[in-house]
């Protein structure tokens, strides 16, 4: 055979600390058919700055679907199937780069996924620009070695083959047809070139991670050696590897034979299928249904169908796949949501999940037993959900497994009439739901009993839409889409159902009240601004107080939420008001001429609005206007000091009782905002930020002009005299 190497690569991704599935970086590869060796080249690196420390990277592998991981140790939702992923760790210590190889022999063809992430996130809220995070990069490359001319083993035909040496195993493949109930593989007529006893190892199937169900047998002697498989995967190539265990370099000649046991499905008339499909779309037509509302058949065809059902090994129910949206599918039974279940043969439903874009969601199968339909009181309906092939024998000893897949069992009885199964990230394949009625020993005639089971099956991006304390996010890696839940208010878990660290409703209400009512501390600043005739500044503070209050009322993670408009609009207005408030306050302190001050007000606001649109969370959106305004203020104060030939402001009381307290409050507020906020303490540290900033504004606003008096309505309403002001000479004239 000719071995052909192939190489696949994807661009490197920057890793993140883990808090939800969106932090894991996903790599999607497709392994071609007839691959005998798969080698992953994993490369991890980190930056060289002082902020970079030793780190451990966790890498998960899975065949058919993205890995189901749980680095935080949280609880999964009820009825969910959890099979831990296969993972390795890569350490980044003194060396800034780590290269690791992972080999997989005889891998399964199809989709393979790799997910990589850093340890759990610390929860600290970092302001963009204040600190430089260390970059941790990860890249995965795939090398494959595949055969170009694998011999095909035809069913029922013995094929002679020769193993040249123990270092060169023999690879063959056989195609498994649909409705194959079993397969038998046999080796016979084994002869060695040195006339010694044969010793061979036979491996059936391919490796899949995290679980592999390869079947291995060891054959010794010259007699026949065989292996039987129940429920092999339908309509797939089965890889078979035979290698010699002999230490001597001798040729081994052997004959291979594969035979199948075919399961004859019960015939469901095409007339029923097309008639049901037509009725579901256009409604029933007069004269097309019987008294019970089901399509009527000729008596001969109905009797023939009944005879086929008694002699068949399974009863297949027609199912229509209805695509609703991205990673959203509903399965509709043409003969109604209820299906009959018997004891003689299982009832089978096909759930098609082989489009390649269905593995990024969650498969939900819900069963409901109609208690009035079961004539035997102690009977049990046993169900099994499996991939690639169905389980065709559901008795008391069956463990819901096929030849190469461990299925998910369900059970219904009179005491427990409901059952639900949740499969997280189901692998790309044809899925089957098998149901059969099981009766206790010595309990009447079980063959005549029938149970009615209502089935609801669908594929959803996020189970239960992540609940009230989560947000379902659609994630993308190149052209592949998958979904994940981002939890809030202390909730965790795959579907945000783990309430171990959840905030109580009282704590959520307290957080909302603190973050919203703390903005009322702008009222003293507004009052001081109005009292000192700074009406433009007072308008800006009012705008900031209003939008900050309602932004934080909308930004809450729990149930105490109120949004008066779109969230993004509220956030933008809050950020804009905060930066503009700092801008106008510092310019007001500079005491420049009014015309220049208002021009700077307007021009600065326009530039701030533009910068926030470019990068809303950048630190320079706040620091840039602050520093520029401080330069203007210092220049103006120096100008006033030189002109008056003494320090400006000249009053020591102004420095001691207003400027120094205001500057101290502002520095404390910046320290809290930049270095102390975390996800856990956000609601009170950010409230402290509101209080400190608003209080500092009230202290920092300069006094009003000396020739202006406070608001006095008695002077405004006088009829005898009119006070005229001359700004230029600062004199008063009475007329």
Give a verbal description of the structure:
The protein is of the alpha+beta class. It has four domains: 3-124 and 132-147, Jelly Rolls; 157-262, Jelly Rolls, CATH 2.60.120.260; 312-460, Jelly Rolls (Sandwich), CATH 2.60.120.680; 505-700, Rhopdopsin 7-helix transmembrane proteins (Up-down Bundle), CATH 1.20.1070. It contains eleven helices and 34 strands. Strands 7, 21, 22, 23, 25, 28 and 30 form a seven-stranded mixed beta sheet that branches. Strands 1, 2, 5, 9 and 11 form a five-stranded antiparallel beta sheet that branches. Strands 3, 4, 6, 8 and 10 form a five-stranded mixed beta sheet that branches. A hairpin with a 4-residue loop joins strand 33 and strand 34. The model is unreliable at 269-310 and 727-735 (pLDDT under 50).
């Amino acid at each position: 055979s000719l071995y052909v190497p192939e190489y696949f690569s994807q661009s490197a991704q920057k890793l993140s600390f883990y808090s939800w599935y969106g932090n894991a970086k996903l790599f999607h590869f497709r392994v071609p058919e007839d691959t005998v060796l798969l080698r992953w080249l994993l490369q991890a690196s980190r930056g060289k700055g002082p902020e970079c420390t030793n780190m451990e990277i966790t890498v998960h592998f899975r065949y058919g679907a993205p890995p189901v991981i749980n680095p935080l140790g949280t609880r999964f939702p009820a009825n969910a199937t959890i099979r831990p992923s296969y993972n390795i760790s890569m350490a980044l210590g003194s060396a800034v780069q780590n290269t690791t190889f992972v080999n997989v022999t005889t891998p399964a063809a199809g989709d393979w996924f790799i997910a990589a992430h850093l340890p759990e996130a610390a929860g600290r809220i970092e302001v963009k620009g204040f600190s430089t995070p260390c970059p941790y990069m990860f890249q995965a490359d795939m090398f494959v070695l595949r055969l170009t001319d694998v011999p095909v083993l035809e069913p029922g035909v013995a094929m002679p083959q020769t193993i040249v040496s123990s270092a060169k195993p023999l690879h063959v493949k056989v195609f498994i047809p649909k409705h194959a109930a079993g397969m038998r593989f046999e080796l016979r007529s084994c002869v060695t070139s040195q006339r010694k006893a044969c010793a061979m190892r036979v491996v059936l199937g391919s490796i899949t991670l995290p679980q592999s169900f390869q079947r291995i047998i060891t054959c010794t002697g010259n007699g026949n050696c065989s292996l039987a498989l129940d429920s092999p995967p339908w309509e797939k190539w089965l890889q078979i590897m035979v290698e010699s265990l002999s230490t001597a370099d001798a040729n081994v000649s052997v004959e291979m034979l594969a035979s199948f046991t075919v399961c004859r499905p019960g015939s469901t008339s095409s007339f029923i299928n097309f008639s049901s499909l037509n009725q579901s779309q256009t409604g029933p037509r007069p004269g097309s249904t019987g008294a019970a509302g089901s399509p009527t058949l000729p008596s001969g065809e109905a009797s023939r169908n009944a005879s086929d059902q008694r002699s068949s090994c399974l009863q297949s129910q027609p199912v229509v796949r209805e695509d609703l949206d991205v990673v959203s599918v509903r399965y509709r039974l043409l003969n109604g949501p209820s299906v009959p279940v018997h004891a003689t043969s299982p009832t089978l439903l096909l759930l098609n999940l082989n489009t390649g874009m269905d593995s990024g969601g969650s498969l939900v199968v819900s069963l409901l037993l109609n208690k009035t339909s079961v004539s035997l009181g102690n009977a049990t309906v046993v169900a099994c959900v499996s991939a690639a092939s169905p389980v065709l024998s559901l008795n008391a000893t069956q463990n819901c497994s096929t030849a190469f897949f461990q299925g998910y069992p369900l059970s219904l009885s009179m005491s427990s009439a409901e059952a639900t199964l949740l499969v997280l990230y189901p692998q790309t394949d044809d899925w089957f739901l098998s149901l059969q009625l099981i009766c206790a020993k010595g309990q009447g005639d079980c063959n005549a009993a029938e149970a009615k089971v209502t089935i609801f099956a669908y594929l959803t991006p996020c189970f239960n839409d992540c609940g009230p304390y989560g947000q379902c996010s659609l994630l993308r890696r190149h052209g592949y889409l998958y979904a994940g839940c981002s939890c809030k208010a202390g909730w965790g878990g795959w579907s945000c159902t783990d309430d171990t660290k959840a905030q109580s409703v009282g704590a959520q209400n307290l957080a909302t009240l603190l973050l919203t009512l703390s903005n009322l501390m702008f009222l003293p600043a507004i009052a001081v601004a109005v009292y000192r005739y700074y009406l433009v500044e007072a308008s800006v503070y009012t705008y900031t107080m209003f939008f900050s209050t309602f932004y934080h009322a909308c930004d809450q993670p729990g149930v105490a939420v109120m949004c008066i408009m779109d969230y993004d609009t509220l956030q933008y207005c809050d950020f804009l008001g905060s930066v503009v408030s700092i801008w106008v306050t510092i310019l007001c302190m500079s005491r420049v001429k009014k015309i220049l001050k208002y021009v700077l007000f307007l021009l600065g606001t326009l530039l701030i609005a533009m910068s926030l649109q470019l990068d809303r969370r950048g630190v320079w959106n706040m620091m840039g206007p602050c520093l520029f305004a401080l330069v203007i203020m210092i220049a103006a104060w120096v100008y006033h000091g030189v002109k008056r030939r003494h320090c400006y402001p000249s009053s020591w009381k102004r420095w001691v009782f207003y400027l120094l307290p205001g500057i101290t409050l502002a520095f404390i507020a910046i320290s809290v905002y930049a270095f102390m906020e975390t996800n856990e303490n956000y609601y009170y540290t950010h409230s402290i930020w509101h209080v400190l900033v608003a209080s500092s504004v009230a202290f920092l606003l300069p006094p009003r002009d000396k020739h202006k008096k406070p608001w006095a309505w008695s002077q405004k309403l006088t009829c005898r005299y009119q006070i005229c002001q001359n700004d230029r000479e600062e004199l008063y004239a009475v007329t």
